[in-house]
Amino acid sequence: MASPPSPYLLPSLILTRTFLLVLLLTQTISSAQSYSNITQGTTLTAGSSTGSWLSPSGDFAFGFYPTDAQASLFLVAIWFESTSPKAVVWSANRDAPVRSGSTLQLTSDGRLSLKDDGGNEVWSAGPANASTAAVLDSGNVVLTASGGILWQSFDLPTDTLLPGQVLGLGSDLRSQLTDSDFSDGRFELAAQTSGELQLLPLAIPSGNQYDPYWSIDTTDSGFQLVYNESGSIYFALTNGTLLNVTMASVYSTEDFFQRTRLDPDGVFRQYIYPKSGRATGSWSRKWNAVAKVPADICQDLQSDGAGSGTCGFNSYCRSGGDQSEVNCLCPPGYSFIDPERKYKGCDQDFPPICKQYDPAQFNLIPINNADWPFSDYEHYTNVNEDQCRQYCLEDCLCAVAIFWDRKECWKKKLPLSNGKLGSYIDRTALIKVSKTNYTSLLPPSGPVISVVKKERKTLIQIGAVLLGCSGFFNVIFIALIIAKIFGSPRGRSTTFQPQTSMSEFNIRVFSYKELEEATDGFKEELGRGAFGSVYKGVLSSYISTNIAVKKLDRLLRENEKEFINEVRSIGQTHHKNLVRLIGYCNEGTHRLLVYEYMRNGSLIGFLFGNIKLHWQQRVQIIFGIARGLLYLHDECSTPIIHCDIKPQNVLLDDNFVARISDFGLAKLLRADQTRTNTGIRGTRGYVAPEWFKSMAITKKVDVYSFGVMMLEIICCRKNLETEIGEEEEPVLIYWAYDCFKDGMADLLVQHDKDALADMEEVERFVKIAFWCIQEDPSLRPSMQKVTQMLEGAVEVSLPPDPSPFLTTN
Q: Model-level pTM greater than 0.90?
């Protein structure tokens, strides 16, 4: 069944048959331009200086085009000669390139004849009576006799149309396989004999057609696709109507080279290239895509379950936005079978052996807004996500579980087809991965190049000394408070009833003895931070619920009422990207907070250790942290500035979902308060520059820390490296910016094959991080805008250099 008409396809003009006839006649006359004749017996040789013929203007060439950098194989092709890069617009032997030494000749009997290096004819064109050949300035190659055209390349297009060219009924364009492989590809634009214009996926190598993913459905049949010489593309119907195909702005062919190509990713794109010396505005001298159909092939291509979809089996498709290429990606625990031919799909890095299958050896990694709409073999209703996970983990054949609407679950088996990722998908894909194989190939973190001046290192050290001095005076100040509060009778006698609770906030008040028993005398320490230590515990009355108990031996309050009010405010926060507060203890001198236990610990253990997270999982963690901060800043009842965002304060639950912790220890803002003045807080390397300037502190300090941490998550490298060579650059943000500025963003993820396969997203995330770490807080985006940029809803412009701020500290 054909897809519904794209919004790009609108009746733009109704013409009479007479006007249409005049249009086609004009195109025929325009092709009779001046050109230099190629006479019978003229020969071209592959790999030699006589390898091509030029059009009179020199804009087009026809002859032998090398298919690789080594010039070992050649196509007989037509290409733009005066653009960079050159662009092939037609080829004769795309499925059988020839070697150096092969020849192309206009024979004495008037044919174009291609012979391989062994002298065997492998291709020929034209009738046996052409007297001359010519390469026209339109990009058309013709064979002529007595001034008439006997054969022309425009009648036999491959994957490209040029201005002045038409695609008649029964004709088609066939994409090439990949950007580097010119052989027949996986997509076709066909002007069907029934009068429809359709884009269809094909089976390789048979060419079998699947259902169209884009088409023009009309009440009247069409008879040709016209790319007129003014640069507009129309589908002409038999009743004289012209339907605009791409809806692109019309660009003058006097000012721009133009072509429209069915690209290897299945998208029909219109390209322009500014001509030298012409008034073409700000257009870059490259092939600029200005229009495409369909609008989103990832979303539109379904194929009713047959075939692999836009990308290969076991991969998923994500549109890059605007006119950019489609991204084909492997899910966690999978890698491309052939990275140069991604259409072949992905393969599991850990195929389970069902006869020895142990569910405990596997985990499920969530990817939001992802789905493989086919390949399911079992469907559950009225289940929660934990049940969905368990059903898949217990089943050896289950490769992916799809969870939707908080109640439905599909188990899917390999191969997975028609995978896609996008905000239009309201489902979560749970990808089964092996725990033992779930590691990255990244080496221990460290800089790759040193391109920043050493003065930056000195400035960082000065900032650290300032922060350290501030900490020293804070310790003295806190000690005085300890003597004042806990030296008083009131400080020694304060006691709360242990079994009471804040029922309206679902917060329980614990006795100290109760928590001492739950932690077995605070035996198992999970971690230690600025405010105290965290211990693992078990609440037997809560059906053996694991908990994390934080002893706040360094957090002091002026009175218990303020402490209770702060706990009450924390208890009102409910978000999937925040660690939930279960209860507290405020008994005598003991102040403890009880949190839900996060089995996978802090994010830092998965960034800088031996086990590193898959790129898409790191992406989801960045999303999670951003959404958690957005909630703290703008959505919870009492806005909160965290003031210490860093990997240690981001915990990972059983499903590796990011959960922000220690936000309850931050400075709370009243509803009518947007700024607060306080001493320097935070951790070296993550502290915003305004802390050093006695400026009013706003939510933007969290945005700065988030930007630093975002770079760490992208690069799997600490912001400050303290154990590296003197000649190497220790500051991640400067090294990262220099790499990005010099067009070497791939160095940031150089050993991460999954990130390298998705460089467009990597670069977008890096730009967002640089906006977050700007010196001027007003230049930093809010967390709401950060979230919108991450989701692709807001365009990310080129950020300024973030480095100048250190020179002012």
A: no
